[in-house]
Design goal:
Residues 229-466 form the PPM-type phosphatase domain. Pfam families: SpoIIE. It comes from Dactylococcopsis salina (strain PCC 8305). Residues 60-202 form the GAF domain. By secondary structure, the chain is α+β, with helices and mostly antiparallel strands. It has two domains: 61-200, GAF domain (Beta-Lactamase, 2-Layer Sandwich), CATH 3.30.450; 223-258 and 269-466, 4-Layer Sandwich (Phosphatase 2c, domain 1), CATH 3.60.40. It contains eleven helices and 14 strands. It has helices at 4-57, 61-66, 68-76, 105-121, 126-140, 175-221, 286-304, 310-328, 402-405, 416-429, 434-449, and strands at residues 80-88, 91-99, 146-154, 157-166, 232-239, 247-253, 275-282, 332-340, 345-351, 357-360, 365-368, 387-390, 396-400, 459-466. The strands form three sheets. It has a five-stranded antiparallel sheet. Strands 6-7-8-9-12 form a five-stranded antiparallel sheet, covered by helices on one side. It has a four-stranded antiparallel sheet with strand order 2-1-4-3, sandwiched between helices. Strand 10 (357-360) and strand 11 (365-368) form a beta hairpin. Helix 1 packs antiparallel against helix 3 and helix 10 packs antiparallel against helix 11. The relative contact order is 0.08.
Length: 467
């Protein structure tokens, strides 16, 4: 009877131990779960950190893309991953595939390659390809493989898809896994955008080099030195709106095709012989206009060799250039003149160019030198008229392109021909030299449009003065 109470403390101790044991089990389990989560979090952070480092370090896009499926597989705990990119024109490219956990990569690769070939044969838009891609891949892959994909968006445009796949039927495409794979896809998008930008920069650098060459060629095609023409003082300048322009001027001696004597130079050849003075403007600006300007120069110089009259030269030039100008949808305005130092006569013909201005020293008046004629390249059968001006000592002739008269100020007003005539007449009446007249007119137009503003069109001046 006395032994019974002695068991009660033992019973209480056992109960306490059982209760304590039940409390320790969930705590240890929770600790293990937290530890696993931390390890998983560290793994994911390390993977994403490695991906970011690769994005900063790799200069080659293909090198970076090689590691993408591996990263996507690791962060999503899947059996493998595949990266597909859209190449445009109905083409989808399988860039990389990675498999692990015993999944056979060969059958996955073959299934994806089959789908990309099928889509490449169809004349479908990229939007249709995107819709069809997931469904076609699911049919092409083995039935026990589950596929999950996420888009690769660069500059608001889908450039490809990143897939993960698994044979694990218990695998869940959780929100966390979706976000991690999307992070990897976003890194791919950044790499693609950076590569696009690098390609654009290289293309721009290439274009800049080509423009430098074109600018240099054009600079050397325009007269670098003024020829010595008996009884004539002259000056010229050309300012292009872009690095390459469509304005053209030239001084061509009547006998430049003849062999030079030992005492003749490029500046003195045929100084007492007739000279051709020409100015032109190709419709448009930039490299295309510069190319046509170069073509015009070569063909005109070839025509001068025939020693025809100004009207005939323009007629022949128009006939020869018509096909090329029509196919390029461009035209050329051209004023062609021939000056005879012995007679001081200026014969000319105009192909719809701005008429040069002739200031007569004896009367202090300005006349326009013009004849009827169509644009070069407008009609293959165009005819051109011809006229002659008898210059006298002190007379000055101004050739110009429409970049001067079309110059616009901040109020939207154009410089117009009237202002040009006034500025020219004032400078000529004050006995400015051709060089001074050229500088004065450029300064006047610049002041009109604004000191900090650049002309939107090429501007060219040629001034000849009888002395």
């Amino acid at each position: 009877m006395t032994a019974l109470p002695a068991r009660e403390p033992a019973s209480e101790n056992n109960a306490f131990e059982r209760k304590n044991s039940r409390q320790e089990t969930p705590v240890s389990t929770l600790k293990e779960l937290v530890a696993n989560l931390r390890r998983e979090q560290n793994k994911v952070q390390n993977l994403l950190s490695s991906l970011g480092f690769a994005l900063r370090s790799f200069n080659n896009l293909n090198q970076f893309l090689e590691i993408i499926p591996l990263m996507a597989t690791r962060v999503s705990d899947s059996d493998g991953s595949a990266l597909l990119l859209y190449k445009g024109e109905g083409k989808i490219s399988l860039e990389q595939v990675h498999c692990q956990g015993g999944l056979a990569c060969q059958e996955v690769r073959q299934g994806i390659a089959k789908v990309t070939r099928e889509l490449g044969k169809k004349n479908t838009s990229q939007a249709e390809e995107i819709v069809a891609l997931d469904a076609l891949l699911e049919k092409a892959l083995p039935t026990d493989i589950r596929l999950f994909g996420t888009p690769i968006l660069a500059k608001g445009k889908e450039r490809g898809r990143l897939y993960v796949f698994t044979r694990d039927r218990a695998y869940e495409w959780t929100l966390s896994r979706q976000k991690l794979v999307q992070l990897v896809a976003d890194q791919v998008a950044v790499a693609i955008a950076n590569n696009d930008l690098a390609v654009e920069v290289r293309q721009k650098e290439k274009l800049d080099r080509e423009l430098e060459v074109a600018t240099d060629i054009q600079f050397h095609l325009l007269p670098r030195k003024y020829p010595k023409i008996q009884g004539l003082d002259l000056a010229a300048a050309c300012r292009t709106a872009n690095r390459v322009g469509g304005d053209y001027y030239d001084f061509i001696p009547a006998n430049y095709d003849q062999p030079q004597s030992k005492t003749e130079t490029d500046e003195t050849i045929g100084s007492s012989q007739p000279w051709s003075i020409v100015i032109g403007d190709v419709m448009g600006k930039g490299v295309p206009a510069g190319l046509i300007m170069t073509m015009t120069r070569g063909m005109l110089r070839a025509e001068v060799l025939n020693h025809h009259s100004p009207a005939k030269i323009l007629e022949h030039l128009n006939h020869v250039m018509y096909d090329d100008l029509e196919s390029s949808h461009r035209f050329v305005t051209l004023f062609y003149s021939q000056y005879d130092p012995k007679t001081r006569r200026l014969s000319y013909s105009n192909a719809a160019h701005n008429p040069p201005l002739w200031w007569q020293a004896s009367t202090n008046t300005v006349q326009r030198l013009d004849t009827l004629g169509m644009l070069v390249g407008l009609d293959t059968d165009s005819k051109y008229e011809e006229a002659t001006a008898q210059l006298d000592r002190g007379d000055t002739v101004l050739y110009y392109t429409d970049g001067f008269t079309d110059a616009v100020n901040v109020k939207g007003q154009r410089f117009e021909e009237e202002n040009l005539i006034q500025c020219f007449q004032k400078a000529a009446a004050q006995q400015y030299t051709p060089e001074a007249i050229v500088k004065h007119l450029f300064d006047q137009v610049q002041a009109f449009i604004g000191d900090q503003k650049r002309s939107i069109d090429d501007m060219t001046l040629v001034v000849i003065q009888v002395c």
